């Protein structure tokens, strides 16, 4: 359309108001999309390749559904409950984020429209239930999952996000440091996933005994998308194209690389072989651990955090997993408790130790010397009480998120159980995708008819069709429960 034909009431400058920083807006939209790509298609691909072949479709659809329904909940009420006006000290008032007057106004943090903020924070809200799903794959009733996601988002995620990230939240006022979601996202998803797995129950005995990844290359590709997407995850947290954003990005990747190498070396040292699942676990634990600290610690600290996140969760997963009664009892399919809850709480504690006062003030834009100071720096500058206080606040934040998710997740599962079963039926557990969805992930062209009768051809595992995968891949199993 020629500019002379524009309506008289439309001014060219209305789409670019004076308060908007185009560079910040462009980066924030890019970062938001990188975060969204971690779920779609990152975790969809990771889950689809990491599970037994008979659960590939179900696992992918659980992730896709969670992503989609969270977006509807987010613009419908979730965003305002997390970042809107205070209802109580830990929760915001429900309201929509649909009106253009609201969406086109300036965000309460940053020089960009609220619509950008809504889209960026949606990526965080969406990935959290997708991660929870990683603990429930291979046995949760899909209808129960459809009910679980919006309920958990409403009654758990929004409480954690408001408490930690909203300036009116009680933990935010106290001074908890969670740069980009180590507590709000990863600790929450790890605890909620483990709790839900307790209520849903374990996989079938045959699946627990043998659960080979159906496509290791696809699994590694999904992990790579998650890793690179973390650039936006932590790099977008300052809400500006700032020096803090740049530091957060390099710290993120340094920590992940160090954690990967640490986990890999431990696998080689104790089992004699480098493990693909070990690489994935090392990447994830490093990314999770650095998240609460990404822009407030120095690069050497990020590397040290990577060494710790690649070793302690390795120990809990490979050693303590088989010794702890509760850990053995709960079937956490992808060890979300270890890779997210343990790594997230570890990151929260190490943030309280290594947070640099100068960097914290750059991020939080406050001159208060009594807040946001790591214990290591407090001891060096004679502010021991302030450092101990910060460490105590970090522990309070961790305890709150843990208790919140145990209670809310349990209540949600018990309520859902009143209406639909939490678990799939015996036939569905035995057969998988073909019984649950009427579809299969892989079918050889000359063997497709075998799957038309799921009652007869129930277990189409790699062992039955060795031509589908190599012998080494068919025998490969994640080091999971």
From TrEMBL:
Stated family: Belongs to the ammonia transporter channel (TC 1.A.11.2) family.
Gene3D superfamilies per record: Ammonium transporter AmtB like domains
A GO CC annotation given for this chain: plasma membrane
Domain of life assignment: Eukaryota
Keywords in alphabetical order: Ammonia transport, Membrane, Transmembrane, Transmembrane helix, Transport
Subcellular location: Cell membrane
Organism this protein belongs to: Buddleja alternifolia
Domain (Ammonium transporter AmtB-like) ranges: 26-442
Keyword Lipid metabolism: no
Protein's recorded name: Ammonium transporter
GO molecular function terms attached to this record: ammonium channel activity
Predominant localisation class: membrane
One protein family per Pfam: Ammonium_transp
Topology in membrane: Multi-pass membrane protein
Transmembrane segments: 26-48, 55-77, 118-137, 144-165, 177-201, 213-233, 239-264, 276-294, 300-320, 332-356, 395-420
InterPro entries, alphabetized: Ammonium/urea_transptr (IPR029020), Ammonium_transpt (IPR001905), Ammonium_transpt_CS (IPR018047), NH4_transpt_AmtB-like_dom (IPR024041)
UniProt-listed PROSITE patterns: AMMONIUM_TRANSP
């Amino acid at each position: 359309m020629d500019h002379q034909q524009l309506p008289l009431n439309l001014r060219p400058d209305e789409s670019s108001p004076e308060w908007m920083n185009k560079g910040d807006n462009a980066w924030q939209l890019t970062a938001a999309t990188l975060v969204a790509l971690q779920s779609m298609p990152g975790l969809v691909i990771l889950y689809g390749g990491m599970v037994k072949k008979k659960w590939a479709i179900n696992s992918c659809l659980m992730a896709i559904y969670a992503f989609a329904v969270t977006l509807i909940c987010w613009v419908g009420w979730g965003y305002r409950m997390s970042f809107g006006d205070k209802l109580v000290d830990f929760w915001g008032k429900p309201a929509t984020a649909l009106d253009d007057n609201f969406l086109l106004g300036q965000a309460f943090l940053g020089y960009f429209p609220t619509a950008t903020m809504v889209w960026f924070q949606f990526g965080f809200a969406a990935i959290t239930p997708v991660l929870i799903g990683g603990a429930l794959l291979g046995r949760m009733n899909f209808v129960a999952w459809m009910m679980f996601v919006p309920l958990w988002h409403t009654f758990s995620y929004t409480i954690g996000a408001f408490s930690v990230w909203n300036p009116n939240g009680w933990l935010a006022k106290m001074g908890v440091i969670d740069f980009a979601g180590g507590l709000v996202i990863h600790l929450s998803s790890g605890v909620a996933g483990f709790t839900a797995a307790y209520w849903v129950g374990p996989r079938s005995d045959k699946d627990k005994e043998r659960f080979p990844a159906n496509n290791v290359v696809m699994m590694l590709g999904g992990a790579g998308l998650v890793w690179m997407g973390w650039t936006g995850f932590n790099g977008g947290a300052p809400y500006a194209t700032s020096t803090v954003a740049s530091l957060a990005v390099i710290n993120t990747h340094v920590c992940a690389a160090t954690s990967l190498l640490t986990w890999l070396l431990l696998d080689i040292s104790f089992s004699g072989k480098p493990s693909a699942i070990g690489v994935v676990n090392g990447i994830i634990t490093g990314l999770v651990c650095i998240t609460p600290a990404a822009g407030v610690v120095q690069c050497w600290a990020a590397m040290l955090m990577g060494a710790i996140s690649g070793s302690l969760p390795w120990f809990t997963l490979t050693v303590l997993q088989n010794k702890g009664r509760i850990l053995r009892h709960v079937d956490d399919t992808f060890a979300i408790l270890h890779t997210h809850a343990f790594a997230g709480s570890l990151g929260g504690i190490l943030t309280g130790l290594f947070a640099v006062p100068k960097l914290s003030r750059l991020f939080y834009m406050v001159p208060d010397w009594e807040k946001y100071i790591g214990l290591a720096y407090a001891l060096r500058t004679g502010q021991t009480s302030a450092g101990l206080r910060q460490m105590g606040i970090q522990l309070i934040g961790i305890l709150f998120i843990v208790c919140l998710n145990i209670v809310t997740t349990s209540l949600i599962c018990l309520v859902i159980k009143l209406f639909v079963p939490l678990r799939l039926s015996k036939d569905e557990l035995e057969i998988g995708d073909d019984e649950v969805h009427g579809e299969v992930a892989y079918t050889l062209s000359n063997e497709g008819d075998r799957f038309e009768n799921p009652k007869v051809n129930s277990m189409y595992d790699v062992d039955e069709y060795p031509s589908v995968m190599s012998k080494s891949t068919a025998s490969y199993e994640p080091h999971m429960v």
